[in-house]
Amino acid sequence: MGVRFGVMGESAAEVEEGLALLRDHGVALAVQQPAKELTRGRWMALVMPKAPAGGEGLVER
User: Fold this and answer.
1) H or E element: which one contains 55?
2) Cα–Cα nearest to 49, from 35, 29, 34, 32
3) Model's pTM, two decimal places?
4) Which of the four, 34, 43, 44, 47, has the lowest number of CB atoms within 10 Å?
5) Tens of pLDDT, residues 3-25
6) Across 1-61, where does the E strand assignment appear?
7) HSE of 54 in the Cβ direction (CA atoms, 13 Å)?
8) Residue 2: phi, psi to the nearest 5?
9) pLDDT tens figures, 41-60
């Protein structure tokens, strides 16, 4: 199972700003669920980090 997390904000635009900040810091994201309104004034996008190319950064267990 992959790691997923939510990015929350007070508007769809604020969620997109949060996603842009993550991308600006080098986090490659695959959006699982675009921003949608959960309740009035609460928006969330469900995302999953993309795996590094060529297995770089993976840890064997």
Assistant:
1) none
2) 29
3) 0.75
4) 34
5) 888 999 999 999 999 999 999 98
6) 5-9, 29-39, 42-49
7) 1
8) -80, 160
9) 899 999 998 876 665 555 55
